[in-house]
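Reviewers of the previous submission asked for a worked example of the structure-prediction workflow described in the proposal, so we include one complete record here. The input consisted solely of the amino acid sequence. No template or homolog information was supplied to the procedure at any stage.
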Amino acid sequence: MMPEWLYEVIDLIASLIRLVGMAVFGLGIGWLALDLLRKAQAWQLQIAVYLGFVGLAIAMAYYLPWGALGMFTIGAGLAILMWGMPKKKKEEKDSD
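From that input alone, the workflow returned the following structure tokens.
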């Protein structure tokens, strides 16, 4: 029989792994949604990708604990900030 404190430690480690996993999942889903939105030729596909992303977020809000949902949201938000923002063009330096 294992001591009670060991169950608590295992539960804490499992919760931390779940939170990190949801952040990585949010990052991946955010990147995938942005990539599909950019490469879509037809507006119907863009609407389908958007509704799928929103539907996933709504389903997660209903079924997941708040901490896991927050980490998913942070991951998706980071994906939008990292890959969704327009890239700045590098200015050529004049070496006169």
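The chain has three helices and no strands. We consider this example representative of the routine output the project will generate in years two and three.
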